[in-house]
Amino acid sequence: MKQIKVWDFATRLFHWLLVTLILAAWYTIENRMIEQHELIGHALLGLIIFRICWGFIGSTTARFTHFLTSPLSALSYLKASLTLNAPHSSGHNPAGGWMVIMMLLIIGFQLLSGMYANDDLGFSGALSDSITKDMSDTFTQLHAINFNILVALIWLHLVAVFFYLLVKNENLVRAMFSGKKPVNQINPQDQLNFKPLLQAMVCLLASVGLGFWLMV
Ligand code: HEM
Ligand code: HEM
Fold this sequence. Notes:
Blueprint: E1 3-5, H1 9-30, H2 34-57, H3 64-67, H4 71-82, H5 94-115, H6 133-166, H7 172-178, E2 180-182, H8 197-213
Antiparallel strand pairs: 1-2
């Protein structure tokens, strides 16, 4: 079956860096490595800033306008999915589009609450000097609660990906590595444009710079 490019390199790099850094954030806090935890958090901050920019200026399938639909059409897409009648999407489907927004919001709050948090042992996040210790303690609790919400969302994400693989016979994971989907699994009406890699890398470097600038 002929394969068509749907994901640019920047979006795929973003995804697998995101997975690696979230695992690293979890590992470092489990092992009480708070300085490394903060460094990873600020790298993640840069990555999320990059993804938001890329959602406006990036390749077609990375753009918010390409995958954001009304919540109602996401619901009717979900209903059609259960009866296996949903149409193919070249990039994110309408329900997946909302999953991306939820991920960005929940990870964004994890980063914000981390920057206001403290560990009661002398460490405090980059923004915590601007609030009282009580408020910082509240953010530390919110940071812990929000992490559990993020983990639940990640499980839901994995269930969706494996539903596609096992029930619909669509390997979205391979597409997130190779960037390509079989021609019969895309929307033929889509005109896909891809932005130069250099543009993505300049945007990524600037975003990571901004993420670390907030730390110092
Ligand atoms: C700017 C980035 C971040 C900063 C400054 C930061 C800071 C902190 C601090 C101060 C604590 C409290 C440690 C303690 O109570 O001893 C903490 C805990 C934690 N952080 Fe972060 N964090 C950041 C990002 C993240 C991210 C991105 C994740 C995961 C996606 C994460 C996951 C956790 C977890 C799981 C805990 C333990 C919560 C618990 O007490 O159960 N953090 N972090
Ligand atoms: C820490 C864990 C993970 C997080 C936070 C996460 C987050 C995300 C996000 C934000 C996107 C949207 C990508 C974009 O448009 O920029 C996405 C898409 C995707 N993720 Fe993950 N992911 C995680 C783990 C995984 C794993 C382990 C797999 C594979 C087994 C996976 C497979 C995929 C696939 C296939 C897509 C594209 C879905 C589609 O075609 O619409 N993800 N993920």
